[in-house]
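A note from the maintainers: we've had questions about how concatenated examples are separated. There is no special marker in the raw files; a new sequence line simply starts the next protein. For clarity in this README we add a label.
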Amino acid sequence: MTVLPYARYCDEILVQTALLASLLDGADLAAQVPTCPDWTLRDLAVHVGGAHRWAGEIVRRRATEEISAKEVPGAEGPEGDDPAALAAWLNRGAEESVRALREAGPDAGVWAWGWERSSSFWARRMTHETLVHRADAAFATGRAFEADPEPAADTITEWLQIMSFVQSTGYVPEAAELRGPGRSLHLHATDVPGAEWLVELGEDGFTWRHAHAKATVALRGPLTELMLAFNRRQKPDEGGLEVLGDRELLDFWLERSSFG
């Protein structure tokens, strides 16, 4: 499955942010986020809103070097613990970021920490940053979570690209251990045609591709649940998922596939 059009990413940032903001309505902002245990619900929302403003400022300035978050106006969030004020602040930051992305277009050259230094990188990154953290907020508030198939599948693809990038740069020491010839993982969404990924570990690292093939271990089930497990938001045997083959290899991957 391919990446989404630039305009779709811009739209998704707004959609995912609005859904995340709606979870704050009547919520206890001091509640712990079980999937990010160092954060409260307020911390989570401020993180997302700050990231939107930071990425938007990079694109707005056409920055060629990293901008400190301290230089970004309003990135620290609103004062007080009013859920409505925090939700409004969150939506406003997404709108400002998307405005900058749409004005820049997909090919503007800007600084980015990843493999592609362009506005397109940030549109895609902020889409998935918001989507995955919306899942975190849903877990914290006890609400149901469901993801649209296209961005959900692309979240898995982007995560594989991120792990490949950090492995090649040595940025995350644990990612360097994702190697070893003759071992492979197959991710198979059972409810979305074509949503499959084959990860093959080799001497120098790992490679991945969209394919249906027998692997050392397979993780299969609904796409939303597959996305959550691969992003380490739930256990591989939760949510109707099925692990076939070498569970230790899957755990080995999940323990070492982290970033930030």
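[label: protein 2]
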Amino acid sequence: MNILAWAGIAFCAATAFIQFVTIAIVILRGRIAVGKLYAKPAVTPAISILRPVCGLENSIERTLRSGFELDYPEYELVFCVANGDDPIVPVVEKLMAEYPQVPARLLVGDDRVSINPKLNNLVKGWKTARHDWIVMADSNVLMPHDYLIRMLSRWSPTTGLVCSPPLGSEPDGIASEVECAFLNTFQARWQLAADAIGNGFAQGKSMLWRREYLDDNGGIEALGAEAAEDAAATKVIRGAGRHVRLVELPFPQPLGRRTFRAVWSRQLRWARLRRVTFPVFFSFELIVGGFFPLLVALALGLFDVIPLWSAALLAVAWYGSEVALAISLGWTSTPKQVLAWILRDVALPFLWVAAVSGSGFEWRGNLMNVKEDSLVEAD
């Protein structure tokens, strides 16, 4: 065999090893977590939960309602909306009336401290939060009853921030299944594996802070140093000599119906943000999916470098490991997910090329540009 053939074999072996090891790490981590009982800690500090809201999303009343039904002794809910005419306002007001026993407020206003509309929406909540422990949680996160307990259980003396990546649930249609394929056995898996080896990255879906760790390092405005507040949070916490930790098992986000255009737009936005915030890690995203390893294995089989059946065996093992991960942790694992995983991996190289070929994206009606670091009004 020539050097090119050996290089192809080495590439397939290395990428398969990484695939199987990261999945094994997350399965082991998850199974240990499933076996744990999230008992209330000896100290349960009062917590302020900030929820930025904007528009009517899938299952929005259910996800917001879940915040009123937490099993925790003392917490407040602070809803933040940029525009008082937003259609989400009546939904929030209805829920606050239904749960008068839960301290809750709705704050209206838009503080332009950054190019990030979500961060601008959160500023007023941060500044008026009554407690020193603060959770920032997206409106589409479905909070289980032990949500706060599970966040607190990951805190240690060296922790500066606890987060949860989104976990896609309840997909409706193949586009939504593809969204799950991106979120769960790909993105969440990589983030959980990184956290397991002590290299956790912040994720903006759910973030548990101690107020002083942010206020002593520039305040909430410091999260505007990057286009994405979670990337800025990672750098702020690491710069302060502390660690970002992830929850043992992510919290679900009901997806409902999605269009391919919406899925592509969201993934492109995140990819372009990763490109400018963590360029070294982003550079490897081109080859971490199954597209190139399986394509190279097929080519090696067709040129009789390896038996053709071994290429097929690699494909079965590759996606079989994702099946094992999804089933083991109770994530979406329908037969459509296998097709969605294949479509995701085919899309990944095109997504990577699109991410490096431009800098603009739309977010909540705002046209943004990660290169120019500017915010312009959408048409």
